[in-house]
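Hey team,

Filing this mostly as a record. A colleague (T.K.) asked me to run one chain through the structure pipeline before their review meeting, and I want the input and output archived in the tracker in case anyone asks later how it was produced. No errors, nothing strange. Just documentation.

Input sequence:
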Amino acid sequence: MDERNGKPSASGMSRLTDCAGSWNLESTLPEQEPNQYMQLGTDVHAVLAGTKEFDELTENGQEIATRCLSDFSTLIAQLDLGEHTAEVLEQRFWYNDAYSGAIDRIDFFSDEVAVVTDYKTGRTAQGRASENQQLKAYAVLVKHHYPQLKTIYVAIIQPLAGGTTIAEYNEQELESATTEILSILSASLDPNAPRTPSPDACKWCRAKSICPEVQATHKELEVISGAVVNRLTNEELVAFDNKAEVVEAFIDEIRKEIKSRLMAGQQIAGRKLGKGRITRSVSSDSASVVSALSGILSSDAVMACAKISVTSLEKAVAKAKGITGKDAKAKLDSALGWLIETKEGEPAVIRE
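Output structure:
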């Protein structure tokens, strides 16, 4: 069942801002089947909303949920908005019949102030709250349903990818945001809305594998592939790099679909499934390993082969002390001090 009723959603507002025509093309596709990562996010959100038991989560899910709740408590304490009067959890709101948004939680402080929180459970960092079009669309929805509000804070909590960011909207800013969001929606609903591929626009678009403009970009890169790269200007290099990112995402989508069809039993000429990579690992039961090798290696020699992982130690400390992963990291850093080695790799190129 499509809770969006075939209408645009706040979650896709950033994409519609960058590529107005993407919604029309994506709406021709069937609903996406949830994968393991989507299901993990759904389960964590259900726990945060109180509709699923914490113990039903995987260990990874429990850690994410715990960190989300801890970061939320810190967020509310930092804002210091006074008495908490009400909350709304996991509810879909509509702006008339134009668009909707499933908001993770809204917390009210008096009749004039609200905090809108969006939990991101993945490892891909989102933009800052002040630049996030999804959160702007949420603020517009909340103002529409609670017109008495004069200040709305919006926050992204992403414990695995950059922490928490907050933005504040006053009444004048909410009015401007409403005009902007409705303008974006109007443009996207135009049957002739242009499609403008870019790394940001195509990143979460399910239609990139069938997008004619993405395919045209692919062909354009093929035409210039014979160019001498070191003769290109800086501007040309950046332009082609942007196009290459779009094409790489397109190719990745194609390969995923080929693998999916082969795994479903379909026959595809020129392609077949190879054997999965076989990995070997030793049991984490160190005592048993030392015992089994007692006639071959001394216990010191066995332990010298073991690599102590910082991540594993952090998890062990968090579990032993009943604290969050963030607190466990601080405790471990304090306890080990100089024994923790840090190395910095080569600098990465970042798109501004």
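Quick notes for T.K.: Residues 234-263 form the longest helix (30 residues). Strands lie at 86-95, 99-109, 113-119, 151-158, 163-170.
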